[in-house]
Amino acid sequence: DDEVLSQKSSLLKRRRDVMTSANILFYESSKQELLVDRAEGQYMFDEEGNRYLDLINNVAHVGHCNPKVTAAVTAQMQKQYTNSRYLNATVIEYSEQLLKHFPKELNTVLFCNSGSEATDLALRLSTYFTGREEHICLTGGYHGHVQSALDVSPYKWKGGAVKQPSHVHVVDAPDAFRGKFKGEDAGEKYAAEVDQVIKKREGKISAYIAESILSCAGQIILPPGYLKSVYKHCRENGVLTIADEVQVGFGRVGSKMWAFELQDVVPDIVTLGKPIANGFPMAAIVTKREIAEAYWKSGSQYFNTFGGNAVAAAAGLAVLKEIEDSKLRENALEVGEVFLRGFDELKKKNMLVADVRGFGLFLGIELINSDGKPAKEEAYSVRNRLLEHRIIISVDGPDENILKLKPPMCVTKENAEFVLGKLNSVFDTLK
Ligand code: PMP
Predict the structure, then answer these.
(1) For a 10 Å CB count at each end of the chain, is N or C smaller?
(2) Lipid biosynthesis: is it a keyword of this entry (predicted)?
(3) Residue 215 Cβ < 6 Å to ligand 1
(4) Which CA distances in Å does 72 have to 250, 313, 346?
(5) ipTM value of the model?
(6) Is residue 306 domain-resident?
């Protein structure tokens, strides 16, 4: 009602007065803007107590305000929250538990506080280890907001202020749906382009970095054999491989704990963030001991004030336990299936729906107009119409034409059925 609207308008004005406009909100207009009062499980509640189904928060991995995570954080905060340079049992226990989920070569953890820091650390380690300074990344890729991460994030180069640096080489994202290579050997062909850059810059490339399913680049599933082939080219030429699992890790894909496993490869460095501690600031990289030890070549020790603090480790432990105890990977598989089947039906009925894809609870719907152009306006219109039904999804991809879903892992089949019903009626009104 009017009172609520004016409260939101006033908050928006105060926000504009003290914060930068570059700090954008999901929904632009004051009429639509969401004021989140509290959140629980897969739901968020606004100031009037209206309940919204959250299908995009992959940070609240084991559910918003998960009571077990909250209890673990609270207990550790009440006990000690000092400095990561004292011996601390919780962070050691966490490292041991985390590494149980990795292939045995990946046996060392370095802690930090955000996905961006993890990217920075991974790139620097690759340089310390190889003595080389150039990197390869993919079109549409995003790996974080610090300078070194922006350097390998073409997704953020649009404005012109962040330019492609001379030490970074971009190869095409292996999009086998809309990209230049399709069919069975698309993976090999895209991988050959990585090899060409490695050969052209012989002895100069330290690392190849990519997400294990491309999120910002448009929910792109890597074609079969792609990473295997890329990693082979990299290894033959002394290039390290970095898998960014910040969005797709921790069982989101259901059948596996890490999305790189879908491609049957073992990266040299894996970056972890967002869901790792269910929203408590924490991130990490997992790598091989000899690569981690190359840190000493920087001439200094690795120290990070907050990285690896006991509270973060306690939160991380609670997350790992909750994934197992509540069988969240199994749930991701089952509910993901319901979504995908429903999306398939939607595609049969709607010309606009060009492709539906995903694994587990990492899903995308690609919208293309009858003239073959990406349907950006329609994508936003679906997103906004769903908000009227109190369902929250996002739009992503370089052309902003992909509907993206990556909900808390506790979302249910009933939630999925509800969403599919509303999605169908929203698409009907678009026709
Ligand atoms: N990598 C990927 C794939 C991401 O999506 C993000 C964040 N959106 C980052 C890295 C950076 O993480 P953070 O925002 O925690 O620094």
Answers:
(1) N
(2) no
(3) yes
(4) 19, 9, 42
(5) 0.99
(6) yes
